[in-house]
Amino acid sequence: MATPSALNTLIDLAHKETDAAAKQLGTALRAGEEADQKLDLLMQYRDDYAARRQADLSSGISATHFNNFQVFMQKLDHAITGQQKVVGEARQRIAQARAVWQSCEQKKMSFVTLADRASKEDLRRELWRDQKQNDEHAARRALHKSNPS
Quick check: pTM over 0.85? Predict the structure, then answer.
C-alpha cells in the first residue's frame, strides 16, 4: 500500500484537478445558460414580431411590406436555427465538462478511500502491537509471581 504522505500528495493533486474541472463545468454551465437565454429572446422576439405584423396583414399592406416581412422572418428563423446549434454545442460541452468533473471527483474519492484504509490498517497494527506488549508484560509479571526467586 502507498505511504500516507504519497497518498496525501495524490489527494491534494486530485483535489486541485477536481477544483479545476468544477470551474470548467461552471463556465460551461454559464455559457449554456446564456445560449438558452439568447435563444429564448430570439424566439420571443419572433413570436412578438409575427403577432404585431399579423395585425398589419389583416388590415392590408403593400406587396413590398409583405416581402420585407417574409425576408425578415426568414432571417429571424435562420438566427434561431443558428442559436439552436449554439445551444446544442453548449449542452455537449456541459456534458463533457460534467463527465470530466465526475471522473476527477471519483479519482479523488478513491485516493481518500485508500488513505482511510491505510489509516485504519495502521491503527489496527498499532492496537495489535499494544495488545502484544500488554500480553508479554502480563506474562512476565505472572512468571515473576509464580517464581519468586
Answer: no
